[in-house]
Known about the structure:
- By secondary structure, the chain is α/β, with parallel strands linked by helices.
- The protein has helices spanning about 25-30, 35-50, 65-70, 105-115, 140-155, 175-180, 210-220, 230-235, 260-275, 295-315, 320-335; strands spanning about 5-15, 55, 120-125, 160, 185-190, 240, 245-250, 280-285, 320.
- The chain is globular and about 50 Å long.
Amino acid sequence: xxxxxxxxxxxxxxxxxxxxxxxxxxxxxxxxxxxxxxxxxxxxxxxxxxxxxxxxxxxxxxxxxxxxxxxxxxxxxxxxxxxxxxxxxxxxxxxxxxxxxxxxxxxxxxxxxxxxxxxxxxxxxxxxxxxxxxxxxxxxxxxxxxxxxxxxxxxxxxxxxxxxxxxxxxxxxxxxxxxxxxxxxxxxxxxxxxxxxxxxxxxxxxxxxxxxxxxxxxxxxxxxxxxxxxxxxxxxxxxxxxxxxxxxxxxxxxxxxxxxxxxxxxxxxxxxxxxxxxxxxxxxxxxxxxxxxxxxxxxxxxxxxxxxxxxxxxxxxxxxxxxxxxxxxxxxxxxxx
Length: 337
């Protein structure tokens, strides 16, 4: 029996921990101020359209307060060559709890999401860990994941999948992926297969402007194809399952307002191809991306959700979480053996 097509949405839930090395709190405060409302609205809208969400969450956000956070800090923290990537020194200066500091804690919101019983709370590592930065080691990554799993477990939440910060992972990097599987994180969001998305972070040409331009153009015009995936061919028992990205949902852009319909059509056409062919389409973004132009961003998202409902009715296209689709494949594999 063939599997239906699947629609996955993963959200990189980070607050300031996701941009601390790029933007000061003051410079990005206006977007971060809206994240809690954005997340609540995302959950409400997805519930209306029966769409499941996967919130890949930085482990620091699970802490009840600073004392709770410090309790889970591992001894073996990342030794990056560039200290600006290390978030641990920032802990001293953050507020003591979510009420004092909503930019570095999110436990009340995480509890509300978890209580819904529909959506997944996933891992985005404990400290927003960068696997491709020089100086860190797989052993340090293991300590980080153990901390992430432990702090989530202490809040009665089980982590079963992972999204790597800045997408710093490659399918051949088993030294990191095997650690994920050992810690119970059985699937991850890989990168799109196209070259413009798959340049290793350590390559000297990774940051070339031409690739940034191509990625922006690809959001509006079909440069790299639908980026949909046959999950059965990706699945291997005992190994972390790659659930690659299909498309980043870029936030509303006033400058490119006239081209918004092209961006949405690009996503909807990919979803339609996946639905018709029984493949997976994986959409992702950050909640803080919706922190400005909120109404326009939610209007776009609702349009995508309406397309999902139509594809569900016509082709059985199925919304699923990252761990949900992984468990479906595990079950299917066992029944076929």
